[in-house]
Design brief:
Blueprint lengths: L1 E3 L1 H7 L2 H16 L3 E3 L3 E4 L6 E9 L4 E9 L3 H5 L4 E8 L6 E6 L1 H19 L6 E5 L3 H10 L7 E5 L7 H9 L4 E3 L10 E4 L4 E5 L9 E4 L8 E3 L1 H5 L1 E5 L2 H6 L3 H6 L8 E3 H6 L11 E5 L4 H17 L4 E2 L3
Parallel strand pairs: 1-7, 8-9, 8-11, 9-10, 11-13, 12-14, 13-17, 15-16, 15-17
Antiparallel strand pairs: 1-18, 2-4, 3-4, 4-5, 5-6, 6-7
Length: about 325
């Protein structure tokens, strides 16, 4: 069995490798070659922790396994550790033997950023120039860094519920040499692409904050009750997702479904656009919306990719297990 520790991931994994892995597995999900197992998520009654498993099998990529982990809210204050903790375990699909154990913390941010980037590649207008960010926390910086590579963006605009956090994304824009401007929510009408990545339980982005032709990637809502955008926005958008079952139950589409504004059949898989079985954006005026809920197969895909890179560089630790 191979081990790739968390400390090695930053030097091994590239945004391009994460992008390729996620694009491939979304395509495999849409063609029926890959599927996610039911998610387990438990409040364990210790340290206020939420712990769970996300797993799946990709027959095309021959990737089988799970990500185990969750959120320990006291880690940082009590122990100087980050609150999100996860590890990916991969298994040989031919034998069931464990094949790799991989640090999953940084990979989670990279695979989540890769998902919105894949949506921008396939759904945003080719001439998109202004990207709007809603959110400025840990994930937001990864999201913006990856998204800036998808189009020739000339400007970043940003809004955050806690404005004092905006320098987190301004720094990313500066590093990429793209000007940054803080705006009010109604200033988002200037954006051609909007990424929303917050932990909100009430919408910030309203339908009239979004101009025709915009692509919106909603990346924060991954639990029942969370919400980032007004449900009415989904009713007027072409809605795409990583996995329909998650989108309508724990993703952004849960609210539009509950209000009867859309039906399950209105939500399409992004993988189908990648495979060419769904046309994706149908006009320059259409609003497209990607509901990125986060699936286990994304974690397995980037973990398998990083194991490959670790083997190539002679960094993977081999243990007799
Ligand atoms: P973080 O704590 O670093 O940042 C939270 C962000 O949400 C900040 O911008 C904060 O200002 C904003 N926020 C907090 N309360 C708000 C409110 N009431 N209204 C509007 N904005 C508010 O968290 P993070 O690590 O950046 O994660 C952000 C979200 O992304 C979380 O909800 C997390 O569960 C989710 N997430 C999703 C995926 C996925 O695959 N879809 C993967 C990882 C994380």
């Amino acid at each position: 069995m191979l081990i790739v520790p968390e400390r090695e991931i930053a030097d091994l994994m590239t945004r391009q490798a994460a992008f390729d892995a996620v694009e491939r597995v979304f395509a495999a999900m849409a063609s029926g070659d890959a599927y996610n197992f039911p998610v387990v998520r438990e409040a364990i009654g210790h340290e206020d922790a939420l712990y769970g498993f996300k797993g799946g099998f990709d027959r095309a990529g021959l990737t089988l396994g799970l990500k185990a982990g969750g959120y320990w809210p006291n880690n940082l204050e009590k122990r100087g550790l980050i609150n999100h903790q996860s590890t990916v375990f991969l298994f040989d699909p031919d034998t069931g033997k464990p094949s790799a154990m991989v640090g999953g913390n940084l990979l989670t941010a990279l695979r989540t950023a890769a998902a919105s980037s894949v949506s921008i590649k396939h759904l945003a207008r080719a001439d998109a120039k202004v990207i709007g960010m809603i959110g400025a926390g840990h994930q937001a910086a990864f999201q913006l860094r990856a998204a800036l590579e998808q189009r020739d963006f000339e400007k970043v605009i940003g809004w955050n519920y806690h404005p004092e956090m905006l320098p987190n994304i301004e720094k990313v824009a500066n590093e990429a040499g793209v000007p940054f401007e803080a705006v009010e929510l109604d200033g988002m009408t200037e954006a051609d692409v909007i990424i929303s990545i917050t932990s909100a339980f009430a919408p910030s982005l309203m339908a009239d904050h979004v101009s025709p032709g915009t692509h919106v990637a909603c990346m924060g809502t991954d639990t029942k009750g969370k919400q980032e955008v007004e449900a009415a926005l989904l009713a007027k958008a072409g809605v795409f997702t990583d996995e329909v079952a998650q989108s309508i139950t724990i993703g952004e589409a849960q609210h539009a479904m509950a209000q009867g504004l859309i039906k399950e059949g209105d939500v399409a898989q992004l993988g189908a656009v990648i495979n060419g079985t769904n046309p994706g954006r149908t006009s320059d005026d259409q609003i497209t919306l990607f509901d990125g809920t986060g699936v286990g197969l994304q974690d397995l895909a980037v973990a398998a990719s990083v194991v490959e890179l670790a083997v190539q560089k002679g960094i993977a630790i081999e243990v007799d297990f």
